[in-house]
Structure formats: C-alpha cells, structure tokens
Here is the input.
Amino acid sequence: MFRWRFHLKYPQFTWPKLLLVILFLSLAGGLLASYLFLPRVVRSPLAGVTLPAGQAGSSGQPAAGDEVTPRLLFAALNASGARLESLHLEAWGRLNTSFTDAETVAGLAQQAVTGLGLDPGAGSGLKCQDTEKFHSSTWEGELQPGVKLFLSVQSLAGSGVDGETYLLLDLTGEPRNGEGEMVAWQGKVRAAFRPWQVDPHLTYGLIGVIPGKLTGAERQQRARAVLAALEARKVEGVEDDELLSISAYSNRLPRSLAVAGREVNVNVALRFHTTDGNTYLHLGSPLLGGEY
Here is the structure.
C-alpha cells in the first residue's frame, strides 16, 4: 500500500490522497492495490493480486510465524552482498464493514495517532478529505527521529448501504539497528491496530546498495543468492539492460498473495541508477511496492 521517501531509496511521498482513493476503490473491487506508483520505471511483473482466503485481517492475533519475516529478509539481503540502506514497512487492516461518517473517521485517526504515542496536532496535523462516498483523515510526521510515518483512516461507501473503513500505516527510514529496528516497527504497528483487534497485513521492504553497474550475469547471481537464502522458487520475472525483477514463493515466509492464480510472497529487483553509478537491490515481501 505505499510509497518510498528517500532519494534513490524511496522517493518522497506524493500520493497521500489520490493513491489511497485508488487503493480503496481497488479493494472494493476485490483487488489488493497496495503497491505504489513509484517514479522508477517498471511495475512488478505480476498483476491481478488478490488476498488468499483466511487473510482478511480480522483477527487480533498475528499470523503464525509472521515474526520471522524480518529475520529472513535481512539474511537474504546479506546473502546478496548488498549494503543495507533503507527500510520500509506498510500495514493495513479493515476496522469495520460500514461507511463511516467523516467525524468518526477523524476520531479514529486521532485515536490511532495517539495510540502510537504521537501528538495529533504535531507533524502535518490531521487532514481530512470528504466526499459523498469517501472520507479520509491523514497524518504525516516522524514516528521517531529519522523514521517517517504516514497514517490514514479511509472509509469508502459500498454499492449498497454498506462500505468499509480501513487504517493504513506507512513507515520509512534509514537503518540504525537493522533487523531489530524493523521488529520494533512491527510491534508499534500492531499496537496501533490493537484497539480494533485487527491483525494488519504487513508489507516489508529493504533497499541495499551495490557499487557500480552489474552485468546481466552478476545481477542474476545476486538475485539467485537472495532466493537461495529464502529457499524460494521463481514464479515470474522481467529483465532488460538495467533491471532484473523476480517474483517468487518461499514456504519459509508465512504470508502470501494470489497473483494471477499463483502464490507469491517475495520480490527481488536490481536496478542500475546512472545518477550515482550504483546498483540498488530492492527486496520486498509479499511483493515490492509499485515501481522501482
């Protein structure tokens, strides 16, 4: 569901309103559109993402084994030989199955911000957008020094009298404690959803840097090292002169998505950037967000 914030890592958010409208329209149509519109050339090669049965985010308990995901992804990045540069964690969960009025949406957003130990009046303050069939309340600021947070409660009217209301969180930052930092973010995110007894859907992202431009064979070798560390099998991929992107499935990762009828839960991409002459390795689970 979200967006990168750092130059040559995750570019600055530009989507808080338009993207989330698109996101929830997609959700209403039965699609998972939580993968962003990054200005970096190519989307994930897989389309038509839908949530598997049993992953509706309606339970207050974490998915079995979900806590192992950060450890597995960090080990896979290390296996690639890339230097870790930035972290990203997205979370979304359905708070209720009704179209909620604007005042209540703003109250839910304030509750979520306060639940994270933050001041709703700090940062951007709560910003609301309301139409006949869509209400949102968003907040942007720092979760802690160097860690950007985007939070939004969105309510979308359904085709009938019902609708859906969601909470979304997006965190990005430069690594200070590596895996431990991602685990700490994971705990904070879950705490934000706890008042509604919702187990959020989590999307993890790591970016590593490899000096210089790799040959096609070298990119393949780095990607294979990542997949081998995760014991993952390739599902689909794309490649050109500057990009390699592979979507895969690993039994070791606890959550997956059904994409065009096939299960995927890890995405690795390597892209060369002429602006600084380095190759960036993007690693995400269950998929990378948007374009890179």
In short: The chain is about 25% helix and 35% strand. The two ends are 14 Å apart (CA to CA). The chain has a mean pLDDT of 80.
